[in-house]
Design brief:
The chain crosses the membrane at residues 12-33, 48-65, 77-95, 107-127, 139-158, 164-186, 198-217, 229-247, 268-291, 303-320, 332-351, 405-427, 447-470. Residues 11-475 form the Major facilitator superfamily (MFS) profile domain. This is MFS transporter. By secondary structure, this protein is mostly helical. It has helices at 8-40, 44-47, 49-72, 74-93, 98-126, 130-161, 166-169, 171-185, 200-223, 228-250, 258-262, 264-294, 299-305, 307-324, 331-348, 357-382, 392-429, 436-469.
């Protein structure tokens, strides 16, 4: 076992700060998009590329970024990712046109794909004591989980009271402080690198396959599921990812060792978390639309309206998940956690025009936050339970990848369901003499609640997968037999919700 680093808690501050920056970036940019589009003359057709350019680069390069962290050193990769992310953010804030903005967003995605796996790998190898690890991951998980909603508040303030450009510039002080802190404080344990030659065919096939998959879902949202390009992307993705799996089974030093994927508990975590992210993306999306469009909340007020969910996540992550994960098997936290989140989501299917915030939306958010915080905490820790140090980066990237793909699926699938239900309601209820504005608002709410019903079902499936696939004991003692397949010392880390 490596010697415990006395500066590990200081290091956690800078690692968590870096992750907060990445999570904030998603929701901040969403709020700033209308103002940026107008200033830079971006067409409605190309507006989605401000989001998509980041998602494609980030999702496509995560596995490569994880492998680079294992090969190059996690601290070096972490600092490089921070410096690059800050430079890309400066470029985005200074953008003078569409091309410059899209290029900056793609660069943010590239450096984010280096930063995220490196941060999580560092956390894994620096905290080896079970109780300390639970506490560290609880703090980190609460920051990561609540960061998206904090981004809504900060983005609203910056856009309303300063300028949309500050939603990019705000990343620079975050990155500078985190990079300086990491450089002087973080000490990476020796002997954890994987110096095997880089699997170039694996890099090419995985990157192209994941980009095609994420773009296919993004395209489905805007152009429909029957669009020829959408179908072509899904076919290409299936072929490329199948070729990737075959390649990884044969090459001597694979980009993603299949042993990382095939262990029962890790497979259950990847699958259940990916599905839960589909549901969560749906919630953020539709609740934001509902509050701003139907209830006329300002961006700042909308951000504050998500505070109960942040509070629930913090309590679920630090007070329930982190305290119990060393005493209770993960499935007994994950299954009930996802079910509690499903009950919270179920409440939101009762939304109507003018629904009470304190009577319906706030308690639903509290349940969602508590359930997700409780479930995500042990799940994220279990994601690399028993993984060899040399595979820690790529295993972390695999969890981020499953969440990134889950987010793309959630946005496309639930948006399509909502749009279809809204159109059907309008056809059925628009009639002469009726208040058209009211009917349109009711139609939007009908679309949101129809999609939220699907999210409820998805969370129930997540709970069932967690309860049936995951059979390891609690994470404060020895690993279960399934966890020792890699023959390594018990190492754990937490992934974050990729956006």
């Amino acid at each position: 076992m490596t010697e415990t680093d006395p500066r590990r808690w200081k290091a956690l501050v800078f690692i968590a700060l870096a992750q907060l920056m990445v999570v904030l970036d998603a929701t901040i940019v969403n709020i700033a998009l209308p103002s940026a589009q107008q200033d830079l003359g971006i067409s409605d057709g190309n507006r989605q590329w401000v989001i998509t350019a980041y998602a494609l680069a980030f999702g496509g390069l995560l596995l490569f970024g994880g492998r680079i962290a294992d090969l190059w050193g996690r601290k070096r990769t972490f600092v490089t990712g921070l410096v690059g992310f800050a430079a890309a953010s400066a470029l985005g804030g200074a953008a003078t046109g569409e091309g410059m903005m899209l290029g900056a967003r793609a660069l943010q995605g590239v450096f984010g794909a280096l930063l995220a796996p490196a941060a999580l790998s560092l956390l894994a190898v620096m905290f080896t004591d079970a109780k300390e690890r639970a506490k560290a991951f609880g703090i980190y998980g609460a920051i990561a989980g609540g960061g998206g909603a904090v981004g809504l508040i900060l983005g609203g303030f910056l856009t309303e009271y300063l300028n949309w450009r500050w939603t990019f510039f705000v990343n620079i002080p975050f990155a500078v402080v985190a990079a300086l802190g990491a450089y002087f404080v973080i000490r990476e344990p020796a002997g954890g690198r994987n110096r095997s030659p880089l699997d170039i065919p694996g890099v090419v096939l995985s990157t192209l396959g994941l980009v095609a998959l994420v773009y296919g879902f993004t395209r489905a949202e805007s152009d429909g599921w029957s669009d020829s390009v959408t179908i072509g992307m899904f076919v290409a993705s299936a072929v490329l990812l199948a070729a990737f799996v075959l390649t990884e089974a044969k090459v001597k030093s694979p980009l993603l060792p299949l042993r990382v994927l095939t262990e029962r508990n890790r497979g259950g975590v990847y699958l259940s978390l990916g599905l839960a992210v589909i549901a969560m993306f749906g919630l953020f999306l539709f609740l934001t639309y509902y509050l701003q469009i139907v209830e006329n909340y300002s961006p700042v007020k909308t951000g504050f309206a998500f505070l109960p969910m942040i509070a629930g996540m913090i309590v679920g992550s630090t007070q329930i998940g982190a305290r119990l994960m060393t005493r209770v098997p993960p499935r007994l936290l994950m299954g009930p956690g996802f079910l509690l989140a499903a009950v919270g989501m179920l409440l939101l299917t009762q939304l109507e025009v003018g629904s009470s915030y304190t009577g319906l939306i706030m308690p639903a958010q509290l349940m969602l936050g508590l359930g997700m915080g409780t479930a995500f905490m042990p799940a994220m820790s279990l994601a690399t339970h028993g993984v060899e140090a040399r595979d820690a980066g790529v295993a972390s990237a695999m969890v981020n990848t499953s969440q990134q793909v889950g987010g793309a699926i959630g946005t496309a699938l639930l948006n399509t369901i909502a749009a279809s239900a809204t159109s059907a309601y309008l056809v059925e209820h628009v009639a002469a003499g009726r208040d058209l504005k009211l009917v349109q608002a009711q139609a939007m709410v009908e679309g949101y609640t129809s999609a939220i019903w699907w999210a409820v079902g998805i969370l129930v499936v997540s709970a069932v997968i967690a309860a049936t696939f995951i059979d390891t004991g609690h994470q404060g003692g020895p690993a279960a037999s399934g966890d020792s397949v890699d023959g390594a010392e018990d190492e754990v880390k937490i992934p974050v919700l990729a956006h």
